[in-house]
């Protein structure tokens, strides 16, 4: 029964695939049936070319997800989020200034953002001294620069506004201290940082498709490390679709 369903779909779209290389036909059937009924439930499906036809659905399941064999003749080997990102070969040069880090903090708004920046500024002398000591004790740079995303989800959206209001009243500052110190230490060690508290910016930097997050991201994640919290993890899961499990 499963094989019959697959062969019917393939014959309707001129796919010529041997099902002996694809055994998970039940999963394919379920996803195909769902998309035939609900392809317009999320903008991301249309963004990836789904228009309700069997051909567009199978192409999507083949090239954007991984539930269907690839279409013969198409230049395709694996979904984009399965592929390796471009290799980042810059060396991690220890820094002795924090000025560029303040530009990284430029998009952080509200009391929480001001607290993070002010803590880094207050302790800047200590961080710079630490950078000088590391340079003096390191004869050769061997480590590669990491591309690091820092996303404190608790500071995003309405939750971030509520958290910010508590900061003004002397609320829980320990979490902000950790984000400030983590940012400063990674920056002094020479890594490339992206710091954001905006869900829209998060979607942009990870390559999320427009819509409600039902579809995988458009490209491999461009980061070597991601630091986040429980809120941020939920935001990532809601934006990455199937790709979230791949990176998890």
UniProtKB/TrEMBL annotation:
The keyword Glycosyltransferase applies. GO terms for cellular component: Golgi membrane. Residues 44-248 form the Glycosyltransferase family 18 catalytic domain. Its EC number is 2.4.1.155. Residues 1-18 form the signal peptide. Pathway: Protein modification; protein glycosylation. It comes from the Eukaryota. GO terms for biological process: protein N-linked glycosylation. Keywords: Glycoprotein, Glycosyltransferase, Golgi apparatus, Membrane, Signal, Signal-anchor, Transferase, Transmembrane, Transmembrane helix. Transmembrane segments: none annotated. It is a single-pass type II membrane protein. It holds the Pfam family Glyco_transf_18. It is an enzyme of class 2 (transferase). Belongs to the glycosyltransferase 18 family. This is alpha-1,6-mannosyl-glycoprotein 6-beta-N-acetylglucosaminyltransferase. It comes from Oncorhynchus mykiss (Rainbow trout).
């Amino acid at each position: 029964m499963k094989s019959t369903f697959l062969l019917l779909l393939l014959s309707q779209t001129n796919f010529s695939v041997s099902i002996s290389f694809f055994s998970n036909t039940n999963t394919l059937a379920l996803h195909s049936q769902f998309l035939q009924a609900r392809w317009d439930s999320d903008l991301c499906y249309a963004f990836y070319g789904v228009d309700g036809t069997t051909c567009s659905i199978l192409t999507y399941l083949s090239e954007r997800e991984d539930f269907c064999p690839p279409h013969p003749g198409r230049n395709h080997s694996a979904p984009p989020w399965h592929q390796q990102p471009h290799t980042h070969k810059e060396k991690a040069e220890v820094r002795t200034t924090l000025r560029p880090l303040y530009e990284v903090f430029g998009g952080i708004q509200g009391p929480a953002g001001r607290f993070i920046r002010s803590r880094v500024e207050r302790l800047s002398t200590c961080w710079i001294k630490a950078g000088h000591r590391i340079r003096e004790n390191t004869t050769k740079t061997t480590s590669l620069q990491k591309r690091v995303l820092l996303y404190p989800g608790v500071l995003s959206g309405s939750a971030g506004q509520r958290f910010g209001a508590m900061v003004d009243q002397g609320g829980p500052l320990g979490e902000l201290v950790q984000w400030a110190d983590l940012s400063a230490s990674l920056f002094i060690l020479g890594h490339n940082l992206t710091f954001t508290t905006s869900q829209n910016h998060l979607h942009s930097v990870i390559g999320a498709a427009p819509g409600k997050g039902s579809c995988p991201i458009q490209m491999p994640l461009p980061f070597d490390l991601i630091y986040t919290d429980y809120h941020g993890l939920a935001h990532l899961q809601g934006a990455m679709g199937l790709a979230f499990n791949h990176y998890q």
